Amino acid sequence: MTRLKVRAAQTGQSSRNTLVELITLEAQQPTLAETAERTQRYARALREEHASQ
Question: How many whole angstroms separate alpha carbon 37 and alpha carbon 32?
């Protein structure tokens, strides 16, 4: 909690607003499963593109 208070003080925000901002940023990050699926789709597209050349 101390780190949160320090970060809030550094940005001039309340601890609550800082926490909401951190949670929002975290929620925007893809999950490991989403990242793995995106990587698989990308690799599949590259293989298909390479095979068609």
Answer: 9
